[in-house]
Specification:
This protein has 155 residues and is an alpha+beta fold. The protein contains 4 helices and 10 strands, in the order βαββββββααβββα.
Length: 155
């Protein structure tokens, strides 16, 4: 259904994945956000399902560890503010450094769910993780939904 066409795979460090899954981190900061959806060939529709690939850095799983719903995002070319800092768990200074003169987008985080067993990308027929994020095609998403269901989690 619609969910399978509306998933992105997001690469994320272990500490930030943990902060999202424990509901401490309410916003994920990126330099670009989903706008056009190649699966539907239309403008991206929110809410999106965001699948988290925990990178291998700092002892991370190198696998999909969970997902969350993204009801929307905020975008700004203005200097980062305290609200964005508080929601993302980063300092205003860190946000400004990352922004590097461009736009900052905050993906809103809702309803995070952890997978009891991390799922390697090979299991969903993908060979590498994106630099930041990429769309999951509906086949990859359906594969993940099946594996998650077997673990008792609904994608």
């Amino acid at each position: 259904g619609r969910t399978m066409d509306n998933c992105i795979l997001l690469s994320i460090r272990k500490n930030w994945a943990a902060a999202i899954l424990s509901s401490k981190k309410k916003m994920e900061i990126r330099k670009r956000v989903p706008s056009y959806n190649p699966n539907t060939e239309k403008h991206a529709e929110y809410p999106l399902r965001v699948v988290m690939y925990e990178t291998k850095a700092h002892g991370g799983a190198g696998a999909v560890v969970g997902f969350f719903d993204c009801p929307g995002y905020i975008g700004t070319a203005d200097p980062a503010d305290k609200t964005m800092a508080k929601l993302s768990g980063l300092s205003v200074e860190q946000l400004e450094q990352y922004r590097d003169g461009g736009w900052l987008y905050g993906l809103k985080v809702q309803n995070p769910r952890r997978l009891p067993e991390p799922v390697p990308l090979e299991a969903i027929h993908m060979d590498r993780a994106p630099q930041s994020w990429c769309w999951l095609n509906s086949i990859n998403a359906a594969d993940l939904a099946e594996i998650a269901a077997a673990q008792g989690v609904k994608l």
